[in-house]
Amino acid sequence: MHSSKSLPGRSPGRTLGLTLALVSAFAFGGSGTAAKPLIEAGLSPLHVVWLRVTGAAVVLLPLAYRHRAAVLRRPGLLIGFGLLAVAGVQACYFAAISRIPVGVALLIEYLGPPLLIGYVKFVQRKPISRGAAVGAAVAVAGLACVVEVWNGLGFDALGVLFALGAACCQVGYFVLADAGSQGDRPVDPIAVSAYGLLIGAVVLTAFTRPWEADWGLLGGNVVMDGHSLPALLPAAWMILVATVLAYLTGVIAVRHLSPPIAGVVANLEAVVATVLAWILLGEHLGLPQMAGGLLVLAGAFAAQASKPFTAPVTADNAAGPNTADAAGSVAVGATALGERLARAAEGPAAGDQVVGGREARDQVVGG
Question: What is the pLDDT of residues 345-359, one digit of tens each?
Answer without folding.
Answer: 454 444 333 333 333
